[in-house]
Amino acid sequence: MGTATLWWRVRGISVGVGSELRLSEARIRKRGISVSTRSSCCSSPLTLIVSSMPYEKELAAAKKAATLAARLCQKVQKALLQSDVHSKSDKSPVTVADYGSQALVSFILERELPSEPFSIVAEEDSGDLRKESGQETLKRITELVNDTLASEGSDSFPSLTTEDVLAAIDNGKSEGGSVGQHWVLDPIDGTKGFVRGDQYAIALGLLHEGKVVLGVLACPNLPASIGSNQQHSSNEVGCLFFAKVGDGTYMQALGGSTQTRVHVCDIDNPEQASLFESFEAAHSSHDLSSSIAKKLGVKAPPVRIDSQAKYGALSRGDGAIYLRFPHKGYREKIWDHAAGSIVVTEAGGIVTDAAGNPLDFSKGKFLDVDSGIIVTNQKLMPSLLRAVKEALNEKASSL
Ligand SMILES: Nc1ncnc2c1ncn2[C@@H]1O[C@H](COP(=O)(O)OS(=O)(=O)O)[C@@H](OP(=O)(O)O)[C@H]1O
Ligand SMILES: [Mg+2]
Ligand SMILES: [Mg+2]
Ligand SMILES: [Mg+2]
Question: What does this protein need as cofactor (predicted)?
Answer without folding.
Answer: Mg(2+)
